[in-house]
Amino acid sequence: MPDAPARLTAALSDRYRIERELGQGGMATVYLAHDIKHDRKVAIKVLRPELAAVIGAERFLSEIKTTANLQHPHILPLFDSGRTGGRADGQTDDFLYYVMPYIDGESLRDRLTREKQLPIADAVRIATEVAGALDYAHRRGVLHRDIKPDNILLHDGQALVADFGIALAVSTAGGHRLTETGLSLGTPTYMSPEQAMGERAITARSDVYALGAMTYEMLIGEPPFTGPTAQAIVAKVMTAEPASLIEQRKTIPPHVEDAVVTALEKLPADRWGSAAEFAGALEAGERVARRAGGRRQDRLRSAGPPVRLTVLVGAAVLVTSAFALWGWLRPKPVPVPPSVYRFNIVLPESAAWVSDIFSIPALSPDGTLLVYNGRDSTAHRWLFLRAMDRLDPVPIPGSENGSAPFFSPDGRWVGFLLGTRIVKTPVASGSLETVCDAGGLVRATWLESNVVVFVDGIGLKQCSMAGQVTTLLASDSGQAFYQPHGLPGDRGVLFYVRRGSTNQLSVLDLRTKSVKTLNILGTDPRYVATGHLVYVSPDGLIRAVPFNVAALAVTGQPVIIAARVRIELGGAIMALSRTGTIVAPGGAALLQALDLVDRGGRAEQLYPRLGEFADPRFSPDGRRIAVTVGGNIWLLDRAHGALTRLSFDSSASRPVWTPDGRHVAYVRQIGSMVDLRLLNADGSAPAESLLALPDLGLYETLFTPDGRSLVVRSVGGPGRRDIWLVAVDAARPPVPLLHGSADEVSPALSPDGRWLAYVSNESGRAEVFVRSFPGMGARYQVSLDGGSEPMWSPRGGELFYRSGPVMLAAAVRAVSTFEVLRRTPLFSNGDFAVDLTHQVYDVTPDGRHFVRVRSQGGTSHLAVTLNLFQNLGLSSSGPVPEARTP
What we know:
This protein has 886 residues and is an alpha+beta fold. It has a five-stranded antiparallel sheet, with helices on both faces. Strands 12, 13, 14, 15 and 16 form a five-stranded antiparallel sheet that branches. Strands 29, 30, 31, 32 and 33 form a five-stranded antiparallel sheet that branches. Helix 5 packs antiparallel against helix 8 (204-220) and helix 8 crosses helix 11 (254-263). The protein starts with a helix and ends in a 20-residue tail after the last strand.
């Protein structure tokens, strides 16, 4: 490929800047390049032209997609792949290439060339890390087929397996035509016997063989079989036995020799069953060195029959005694868990995280795909799909305003709520398909039997892919069901039951249709494959407890695995895969600015510093603003710019002023306990509890103009999200104002107290409606194309609301009947905070300005944790002590 750099540089100039050649291999030439878009160094591997010509570009690029889904700490990820395409001057410039990170280090081959033999601990560690990568890929049906020191990169001492699955892509794409190129897949020194013989049915044990050969070389300084030609090496691979490791290096432990020699067995069935077994044998040290013993028997045969018999008899006695003693005294296996990894994923401005109650992400069962609610550059809300080995999330077609995502058990489909419908779409892109009508805001789980189980507050229901809905479990009066989560093998469905202020974890046995209470208080139950039930305890901490799926029983004591997680009405704002990967929003996106915005969208910052601002509310005279800042209520004096702390609860939110402006009420939530507390606006007295509705809950409140009653939006009880009228002195029981099958949220009273605006999804999407108050007469629809967050002008005659990113003003006439005269768009602003169930802005008393919370910057990040559960030390056989984790 003498002129390849110039032509390759020209072909890829819009994406990569080729700097120099790094080296050549049997299948590809490697170049150092600069990724222009992401400003980073990358390694571009370009397939040899004769190989590319034989296998075909489209087939290769199709097959290589398999490797793009591999994400593991010891696998070098695949950034990109493609072809340049076309012909020029009779010479092909149709290059096939794939792009990987550039590792500024050395390969294992470089280190072996320099040191020849590695310290035993280093060899075992590197082999174990590579085995972890292989086991991860094998469980996903991907083989490497070319494990060798050249494909192991060492970065900060850690092993990274490169070219993962490339050989598979080449062999699958090229088939028998590869023989025409004179190339072979794999390296004879590390080929398994079945691979050397060209067998088509290659299994994961072939990779185990190659890893065993590489480990042998790390320990001894040369591979188990060498020769002057490839044919000579293959002949030895097929017929010869490897020389004893201990005889060549006496410091090698017997169990290490046993592990390596077992990996090098001729028959695949005689090798370790998986790379994980090989790693365990290398590290645990408890296995009997059966192969070393076999070789000792061979050496004894050379002593002659009389000696051999005597020695064999004595050896038999010794071995029998040794095995008996070993059975009593052998140490218990001590598994070595993988390291815990924590890192951040930075989201681009075009797919920024939406921070509201609908932003509950979902991970595929294997943890390789993430779906979350995001906002594009035009401020439209979508569900975004991000493969964990890719940098840029992509919007899911048709998912605008979708919510509550969940995956199919095989990870090939994403389901979510769209209006009142549960829909599904293939991960690999495709059209939406309706599963069933769920009637409102729900959470769902997809069972292995290809049905969806969901909760709608009052029942646990099941819908088939044909749309048939049946009730699995109906709630009793005063209780509601939330957060279903299917267990492996469709053994049962985890969920929690809310009764009053108590949340109890439960499980539905799908075989008997009976419910078992787990005697654990908490929410958000989920199961991970390490045998743990994960949940959020009433103190807001994430805990894990051993759980036996077969018995549907807790078998130990819980431990804390993470500090407080953000809890919203939809559940804990985190995603958890079946493999135990955790994804939660990071802290950088919480910083916001407090702005004053005119009707044209021109803004000025009210307070010079950023903070965790939420729910600003003007005092009746407009001079002060009550606002939530980091879990407490603060007052901003507009004249002097002073921000003064008012509450000291660390769990306060959603302040409202009393009509006389002398007090501020706010919602306080500690675990499942919610009440409304009252403060003197001058800070002259501590807060006191004003109202608690344990059977309903308090999530939004506002005073009637006379100050004697409250309009309350609740969650709980026998209904869903409903609106009630409650006497401040609790002299009368709560009166339902809007109490039906749909969700009603965001209540707003007109200045004269005669009309109630609210949001309902009764039509299939959120719209703004108005009814007379308190009689709740005829219903009038205000919004036309979706609406949220209604807020009256204090001057009357106008009702503001949001439709997507657009703020509108509806001029209204409200006398004996209600009429919308016109709807006028005011401004569109994508960084205006949004909450589809609650107004997150307010209007000045003159109706000319708004106070808003503005997200600072367009990016956000997600915090990812790997391998946490494998390091908890939990056992399903007994209790464990409470433990702290970082």
